[in-house]
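User: Could you check the structure of this?
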Amino acid sequence: MNKRQQVFNLPVKGRVIRVDVDPEFNLFRRLHWAEIPPSLGNAFGADKIMIILPANTTPALSKRYADMAALWGGRENFTIVKDSDIKALPESGAVWIFGQNNKFYNHVSDALSDYDASVSADAAEFGKKTLSLADNSTIIVVRNPKNPSAAIVGLTAHSDAAIAGLARKLPHYGKYSYLAFSGDEPTNSAKGQWPAVGSPLVSILDKTVASSAKLKPRPALAELKPVFDGKRMMKYVTDLTDDKYEGRGVGTKGLEKAAAYIASEMQVAGVKPGGDNGSYFQTFTVNGPDGTPVEVKNVVGIIEGTDPKMAGQSVVLSAHYDHLGHGWPGVRDAFKNQIHPGADDNGSGVSVLLEMAHSLAKTAPPRTIVLLAPTAEESGLLGARHYVKAAKNYPADKIFANVNLDTVGRAGEKIMVFSTDSAREWPFIFMGTTATLGIKTDLVKQAVNASDHTAFLEVNVPAIHIFGAPSGDYHRPSDTVEKIKLESLMRVAALSKEVVEYLASRPEPMTNQIKQADPNAPKILPPARPKGGRKVSTGSMPDFAFQGEGVKVSQVAPDSAGEKAGLKGGDIITSFGGVPVKDLRAYTTELGKYMPGDEVEVVVDRNGETVTLKMILAKR
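Assistant: Sure, the predicted structure tokens are below.
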């Protein structure tokens, strides 16, 4: 263009049904309001804010909303009125409409016709998610019909106890267009941004045809060389799941071969041996499948620290390399004598560990980094427990922290991290990794102690477990290499490197928050799994990221006990066999009490409705 306004003729083939101008915002320009989805940030950042309370409501709701308004009131730019005091919404500033029975709430519900959302008397729907208003507070931002650049916020609160938490938390959710919170804390149960609609730079010429405009992706002007070798990581998983390793089960020759393979790769990477007698191996004895003693090996490599003040201290990066072999221990009846390759559990973790060997060996960390591939994890965390008991050069009382990688090859949008309550700094560390790497993490509050980090927690070492995502292939022969996602391995590698390098250079100790055991209790470590293993299965996979009360079901296996009983993904199990289920640990305890063929009553919360199921438990 060389004029302020210029006309162009663009010859096209076929019929034009839609025109989008600058859909990817490549031009540096001031955006039109319709290109920016309404959000809470618009509401909190407004010069003037009006809160409208419902006049025609119950005394309980009237007090609830008045208390909510009072928590935010008292500022110069805040005005609190009742809906009976005004005839129309103000045209400027932000407006908060409290309560569904507020005479102005229809401005919120009507505006949702532009989006895939709706609100009824007892539920809110955001896409495919339906939330009961009896159990969830909702916050919905729409445009002011008289001033589209201004925000209107509809707020419903489900309990008096949730008010204080809502008032405290909402200013931190500025980028979202809608939110929901459950419980008294309250806990976030839904969040999202509306799509931009009504842009003047979009012209739909034929509204009878569904259309969207998307340009072909263009390569970046410059690309940095990858920090990690993805092909090498995938080769590690492929190699370790080969049939010659026999599923890496205790008592198989394949487990011995896997240990030698990992040690040789550590040597190639330039990592020094950290096992017994100058080798990479830490050898000990466990009971095998038939109860006879079997010699097994942890594989240990070290990258020595350079700071004399940190001599003897270590950061341990661990990933167990054993798996179930032909199905032991706890083989499911349907999979007896089949090789369990264990690609995700835990060929994926070992692949990241070995890639870290290549990456970290090039550094000179102040504090020593130990790369530990424990064995016999599936038998009860025996390898990790042996390491913390027998490590000589870097004993347990000088281990700074443990980062454990287990089942990291199939992560979704967020990478899960367990046991971040073991030290005060963990949440802040992962806030930092999200800011610097853009990798999202989900810090899981559920107590899930089924991996090697538990052995470190038991000896008072702050430890976390980095985890990808649950899948229906867990402990099955179907856990194969083609289901591993390279993108997941790359993200976990980047995250692990950032965390381990920070820990290896942090001068101050971690603030230990591990709950101490009773000093008068017997000094016997509990087994990681019930003796003999759990005997029954429901066929359901828990949603580990769920932070409410109960156990949320993420998926149900076809033709399983759960599916036959009517259990569905999204159900929240609140009672099992008449016993309340508060969390995953309580649920697992109850499952351990039953035998195959037992009928049990299962109570679930399904979108706010209580549903009772009769389930006949299947054999694992």
